[in-house]
Design a protein that fits this description.
Blueprint lengths: L1 E4 L19 E2 L4 H9 L2 E4 L12 H8 L5
Antiparallel strand pairs: 1-2, 1-3
Organism: Acetobacter tropicalis
Protein name: DUF2635 domain-containing protein
Length: 70
């Protein structure tokens, strides 16, 4: 899951004690991070995955389904 610190909060990674970046980071769904989420120390970020395949227009879809003359 991807989380970022809540406004006005600083959260450290367990073990390394490195601060969680304000832009967020992917973290494992461990008890530590789930507790931080439930306490409001972090907010879950729903990262959107950009589409690498462009959407086809209606015109190109019609052209693709037409058969070539024999």
């Amino acid at each position: 899951m991807k989380v970022k610190p809540a406004e006005g909060r600083a959260v450290r990674f367990p073990g390394t004690l490195r601060l969680l970046d304000k832009d967020g980071a992917y973290v494992p769904e461990t008890a530590f991070w789930l507790r931080a989420l439930s306490r409001g120390d972090v907010q879950r970020i729903h990262a959107s995955i950009p589409s690498t395949i462009p959407a086809r227009s209606a015109a190109s879809a019609e052209t693709a389904t037409e058969k070539a003359p024999a």
